[in-house]
Amino acid sequence: MSTERKKINMMQFKSRIYQHFFIIGLLFVVPDIAIPNRLKAKTDPLTEQRKAGVCALEPSMSCCYGWKNVNGVCQPICKKPCENGFCIGADQCSCMKGYKGKNCNEDVNECGLPMRPCSHSCMNTIGSYRCFCNPGYTLDTDGKSCIKKLHCTSLYCQFGCQIDRDGEMDCLCPPGLYLAPDSRTCKDTNECDGPFHTCTERQSCRNTFGSFICVCKEGYVLGTLQDAVTCRDKDECLTGNHRCSHQASCVNTEGSYTCQCDKGYTGDGFRCWKRSNRQQSWAAVYFQYKRSKQMRPI
């Protein structure tokens, strides 16, 4: 074989080696481009269907320890209620802002934190705090910062003030408050009276100073439903938190429950007595009906 032929074969061999290394590099650097979709590993469908609190899907869905099945959804159980928060796992609470502790029953002292929220004086309150300014300063509209009183001192504004282009001085109020008729003090805006709040149908709006909070209505509890934090139906029959008679069955309804007397008994469900075989007079039936109404719990 001639020398020129050997050189050509060697160059072709090196070219093939470079091509192989280039393809291998693509597999590591750009895997989504290099690997066809048909060759990608398929995700386990059981993993995709598995939700929080689910320990098994086959032959039937079963919830993990510390969770219970509520209408096909595993809900966490907290033996002690989360007073200012909601249950997110087995005996695990997630506290609302301003509270801490295992059951969210401890107030957070924001004034004692390393990063104090107020620029001057701070007063801790239950679940929140209030800021105050030193003499010669007034509270800014953010409710935290203190600004030096300049020409606004003559207005004696409760929180803050501004000077417009014409030199006119006006008092300002923080969000959630409005200027009173005296043009100096601020009054609370009741967001619950108008369409200003964002509470759902299962929640009630509770006004607070400068803001509002949403609380679950009677018959509902705060919890997780379909991976979202919301007010879900409180199953009084499941928890035993009902007033049905021992001779009655509890039937859960949306936001409440009803009581139905067992077979062979009569009454309103809260009070049940054994049905008599002999015919009662209309007067006796009416008397028992009025008596059950008087004894029905409020």
UniProtKB/TrEMBL annotation:
What GO CC terms are in its UniProt record? Answer: cell periphery
Tell me the Gene3D superfamilies matching this sequence. Laminin
Residues in EGF-like domain copies: 107-147, 188-226, 233-271
Q: Which PROSITE patterns does this UniProt record tie to the protein?
A: ASX_HYDROXYL (PS00010), EGF_1 (PS00022), EGF_2 (PS01186), EGF_3 (PS50026), EGF_CA (PS01187)
Coiled-coil spans in chain: none
**Keywords from the UniProt entry:** Disulfide bond, EGF-like domain, Glycoprotein, Repeat, Signal
Pfam families referenced in this protein's UniProt entry, alphabetically: EGF_3 (PF12947), EGF_CA (PF07645)
The record's section on CDD domains has: EGF_CA (cd00054)
The keyword Metal-binding appears for this protein: no
Q: Which InterPro entries match?
A: EGF (IPR000742), EGF-like_Ca-bd_dom (IPR001881), EGF-type_Asp/Asn_hydroxyl_site (IPR000152), EGF_Ca-bd_CS (IPR018097), Growth_fac_rcpt_cys_sf (IPR009030), NELL2-like_EGF (IPR024731), Nephronectin_domain (IPR052235), NOTCH1_EGF-like (IPR049883)
Per the record, the GO terms for biological process are: epithelial cell differentiation
- MF terms (GO), sorted A to Z: calcium ion binding
The record's section on PANTHER family has:
NEPHRONECTIN (PTHR24050:SF19), PA14 DOMAIN-CONTAINING PROTEIN (PTHR24050)
Q: What is this protein called?
A: Nephronectin
Q: Taxonomic lineage per UniProt?
A: Eukaryota, Metazoa, Chordata, Craniata, Vertebrata
This protein's gene is called LOC113044790
